[in-house]
Amino acid sequence: MKNLIIITVLGLAGVFSMSLIPNTTSEEIITEKDYPKSLADFDDFKNLVAEVESHRAKRLIDLDDFLKMSKKKKVVVLDTRSEFRYKRKHLKGAIHLGFNDFTQENLLELIPDQNTKILIYCNNNFEGDQVEFASKVSAPPSIGSLVQRSSNTMETQILSNRKPVMLALNIPTYINLYGYGYKNIYELDELVNINDSRIEFEGTEVD
Fold first, then answer.
1. 66: exposed, middle or buried (Cβ count in 10 Å: 0-12, 13-18, 19+)
2. Which of 1, 85, 109, 148 sits most deeply, having the most CB atoms within 10 A of its CB?
């Protein structure tokens, strides 16, 4: 009888310990394996982001300063959106290199002098044209859809109060340019209406 009680207690302890790891299966337990690692290093990225943060904070500019700088010599306006979107509509005078094509070789070919002043912008700088300049943002689900998807009132309340997460291309563009040695960067920080008279666009979709 005592053996039966001990076995039962041990069994319950095992079940309880597994309950502390919700939704964990044997397939999710990753073990160290010996294989060639990808050319990705999260520590390198974290260190670069930490270094860029204070640098970028001093180089966020409004549209007036952006336009004033763009007219000076040895200054380029760089558009890193897709080639498709660039060809359809971009700031007049901007040159293009898609973010996916960022390599040291491609950047040096496009901008040989790393001291060149580079002005950057992205979709999230413009409002009023969600076709050519669709905002990159992860918005929380609407409350109505949450009620349908979840019967847990607390979960619904937490999710519906979640702040939208901005995923602007400007930031990874800035980080990568800096990492490749281009540190004379300025980023458009203003949200500009697409019909603002101060700006001029060009491309296949521009009248």
1. buried
2. 85
Measured CA to CA, the distance from residue 79 to residue 146 in angstroms comes to 37
What are 11-32's pLDDT values in tens digits?
444 444 444 445 555 567 878 8
| Cα 73 from Cα 64, distance rounded (Å) | 17
Residue that is written with structure tokens 């949200």 in the block: 191
Q: Is the whole model's pTM more than 0.85, yes or no? A: no
Which structural domains are found in the chain, ordered by start? 35-202 (3.40.250.10)
Distance CA 71, CA 134 (A): 27
8-state DSSP, 27: G
Inter-CA distances, 120 with 22, 29, 33, 65, Å: 44, 42, 41, 12
